[in-house]
């Protein structure tokens, strides 16, 4: 079974979804999930008709972050020398970096649809690089980096400092407390909150409503608006 499920366009301009499809692991980043996300986002970037690319999750979680069962290095006996071990260690981070780069460089409007709670990398990586963030009422964000002896990664410290303020970001990242979806909306990180039941339908209705404001060729207009906003 694929780690990622991608929808097809039902009509010109309709949103295209990429869905984390590892619900039994709470959509942890294991297997080839991140590699499949990179491939899907790049493909959707060149889709001629769509305006919105949506990233969401299957099941009750958006993502539980790293798959700890699949994140360990091989035993020391598996490496010829320390140099090989060091290179193997850094290679573990390449898929995540490439995934975020594909989102940052994405030409279409990138929509993060948080269907449920997000923890670790699932909480830290995506809100700061998405254009629009929609959330279900069950969402919370939590990053237990300090408890695990880790530092905020992939630009999350600067992204959260800019979006929620330095002192809130310090509390969130250092102490690992859960931030509720209501707080995320108050702080401007989440655009809209929708009920858990029928969440994906609410997301679709919201995005189709945005298209209703644009006449003519919506794809090109939204792409150009995004370019202008990125110059600010």
From TrEMBL:
CDD domains: crotonase-like. One of its GO terms (biological process) is fatty acid beta-oxidation. One of its GO terms (molecular function) is isomerase activity. Keywords: Isomerase. The keyword Repeat does not apply. It comes from the Eukaryota. GO terms for cellular component: peroxisomal matrix. PANTHER family: PEROXISOMAL D3,D2-ENOYL-COA ISOMERASE, PTHR43684. This is Putative Enoyl-CoA delta isomerase 2, mitochondrial. The lineage of its organism: Eukaryota, Fungi, Dikarya, Ascomycota, Pezizomycotina.
């Amino acid at each position: 079974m694929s780690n990622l499920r991608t929808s097809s366009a039902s009509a010109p301009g309709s949103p295209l979804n990429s869905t984390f499809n590892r619900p039994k692991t709470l959509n942890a980043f294991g297997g080839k999930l991140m590699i499949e996300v990179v491939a899907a986002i790049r493909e959707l970037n060149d889709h001629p008709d769509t305006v919105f690319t949506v990233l969401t999750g299957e099941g009750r979680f958006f993502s539980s972050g790293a798959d700890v069962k699949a994140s360990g290095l091989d035993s020391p006996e598996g490496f010829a020398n320390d140099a090989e071990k060091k290179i193997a260690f850094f290679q573990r981070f390449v898929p995540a970096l490439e995934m975020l780069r594909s989102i940052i460089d994405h030409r279409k409007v990138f929509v993060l649809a948080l269907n449920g709670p997000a923890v670790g990398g699932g909480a830290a990586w995506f809100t700061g690089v998405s254009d629009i963030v929609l959330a279900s009422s069950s969402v919370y964000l939590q990053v237990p980096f300090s408890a695990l002896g880790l530092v905020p990664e992939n630009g999350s410290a600067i992204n959260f400092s800019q979006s929620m303020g330095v002192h809130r970001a310090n509390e969130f990242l250092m102490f690992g407390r859960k931030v509720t979806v209501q707080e995320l909306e108050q702080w401007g990180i989440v655009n809209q909150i929708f009920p858990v039941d029928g969440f994906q339908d609410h997301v679709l209705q919201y995005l189709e409503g945005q298209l209703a404001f644009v006449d003519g060729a919506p794809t090109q207009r939204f792409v150009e608006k995004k370019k202008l906003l990125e110059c600010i």
